[in-house]
Design a protein that fits this description.
Layout: E1 12-19, H1 24-35, E2 42-44, E3 54-61, E4 73-75, E5 78-86, E6 97-104, H2 111-124, E7 126-127, H3 140-150, H4 153-157, H5 159-164, H6 166-190, E8 201-205, E9 211-215, H7 219-227, E10 230-236, H8 247-253, H9 257-266, E11 271-274, E12 276-277, E13 280-287, E14 290-298, H10 303-307
Antiparallel strand pairs: 1-3, 1-5, 2-3, 4-5, 6-14, 7-12, 8-9, 8-10, 10-11, 13-14
Helix pairs in contact: 3-6, 3-9, 6-9
Length: 319
C-alpha cells in the first residue's frame, strides 16, 4: 500500500506487478533485461516472499525514453497489472503497509481453540519478532555476520568489503540488529512485560516512529498501553545514544560483544522498535482443518510473528 499519488507523467515508469515462485530481485532483473536497462535503473520498495502470491510496485528510470514494450505476462509467474508514469523514483520504504491474505490447511487445533487464539491476537496483538527470513536459510546470515565481525577490523574494511559488496553488508548489519532485538523481546515475553511495559521503558506512539522516555510505568501509561495508544519498545542497536537505554537492555546486549562491536565499527545508528504488534483489520474464518486469515501490517513487520501465535511454524524467530 503506497502513500503516493501517481501523476501520470515523468521520467519514471511505475509498474504494479503480481508474482509467484520468484523473489523481488528476480523480478527486477527480468524487468531490466526485457526493458534493455541496467538493473540499477529498476527500483522497488520492499522484498516479498518467493512462494507467496504477492503484488508490489517497481519503477523503471526512463529519462527521455518511451515506455518499453513489455508484455503483460512478463515471465512464468510474473504479470504486469498496471503501468503509470511518475516524476520520482520508487524508493525503499515508500509503501505504508502490507496486506496479507493467508490460507492455512491441515490445522490440528479444535475450532474453539483456534477461534480463542485468533481473538487473543485481535485484542492484544503479538510479540513483534523479526521473522526467520531475516536471518537467511537455516540462519546462514547470522553465521556469516558472526564470522565477519570476528575478523580483524582492517579485514572488514578492506578485502571482505570488496568480496561482499554494500548490499550484502547491509543485510548482515540488519541481521545482527534483528538478532539482538529478538533477544531483548524474548526476555520480555518470558516475564510477561512485552505488551504491558516496565518502569524505565522507552515508549512509541501508535501509528508513528516517535518515541519518548525512559519513563516510569504510571497508571496513565498502563492505560494508554492497554488502549493501544503507546507501546514499549526494544533496541535496534547502535552506539550513539545507546547509553540512554534501560540498564537491563544494556546488560543483555553486553552478552553479545562480537555483534555490538561489529555494529559499532559499522557506525550503526540507534533506533527503537515496538515490542508488540497489533495487526490491523484482523479477521479469520475457520472451517474443518482450514483457517483463512486477513490482516494488515506496517512495513518492516512480519506475518510470521502473527502465525507463530496461532500454529506451530517451521523456522521460529532466531535467538
Amino acid at each position: 500500500m503506497l502513500d503516493v499519488e501517481l501523476t501520470g507523467a515523468g521520467e519514471f515508469l511505475w509498474l504494479r506487478v503480481t508474482k509467484r515462485g520468484v523473489n523481488t530481485a528476480d523480478v527486477a532483473r527480468v524487468l531490466a533485461k526485457q526493458a534493455g536497462l541496467p538493473v540499477r535503473a529498476v527500483s522497488y520498495s520492499g522484498l516479498k516472499d518467493r512462494q507467496a502470491v504477492a503484488t508490489q510496485w517497481f519503477s523503471l528510470h526512463l529519462p527521455g525514453m518511451p515506455d518499453p514494450d513489455l508484455p503483460d505476462a512478463l515471465s512464468p509467474g510474473v504479470e504486469i497489472l498496471q503501468r503509470v508514469r511518475h516524476q520520482k523514483k520508487l524508493r525503499s520504504g515508500t509503501h505504508r503497509a502490507n496486506r496479507f491474505e493467508i490460507c492455512l490447511r491441515d490445522c490440528r487445533l479444535e475450532l474453539d481453540d483456534m477461534d480463542r487464539r485468533c481473538e487473543e491476537v485481535k485484542r492484544h496483538g503479538v510479540p513483534n519478532y523479526f521473522g526467520a527470513q531475516r536471518f537467511g536459510r537455516n540462519g546462514d546470515n547470522l553465521r556469516q555476520v558472526h564470522n565477519w565481525y570476528a575478523e580483524p577490523a582492517g579485514g572488514r574494511r578492506g578485502g571482505s568489503r570488496r568480496r561482499r559488496g554494500r548490499h550484502l553488508e547491509g543485510i548482515l548489519h540488519s541481521t545482527a540488529r534483528a538478532f539482538l532485538f529478538n533477544e531483548v523481546l524474548a526476555e520480555r515475553v518470558a516475564d510477561g512485560t512485552w505488551r504491558s511495559g516496565r518502569d524505565g521503558d522507552i515508549w512509541m506512539l501508535a501509528g508513528t516512529r516517535s518515541v519518548f522516555g525512559p519513563e516510569p510505568l504510571s497508571d496513565e501509561l498502563s492505560e494508554r498501553c492497554r488502549l493501544g495508544d503507546v507501546a514499549p519498545t526494544g533496541p535496534l542497536y547502535g552506539k550513539a545514544g545507546g547509553e540512554l537505554w534501560p540498564a537491563w537492555e544494556q546488560a543483555l546486549l553486553g552478552q553479545h560483544p562480537v555483534l555490538t562491536s561489529g555494529l559499532d565499527a559499522a557506525g550503526a545508528r540507534p533506533a527503537r522498535r515496538r515490542l508488540s504488534l497489533r495487526p490491523a483489520d484482523f479477521a479469520w474464518e475457520s472451517s474443518g482443518d482450514e483457517l483463512k486469515l486477513s490482516f494488515e501490517l506496517p512495513r518492516g513487520e512480519f506475518a510470521t510473528a502473527v502465525l507463530r501465535e496461532l500454529i506451530d511454524v517451521a523456522g521460529q524467530p532466531v535467538r
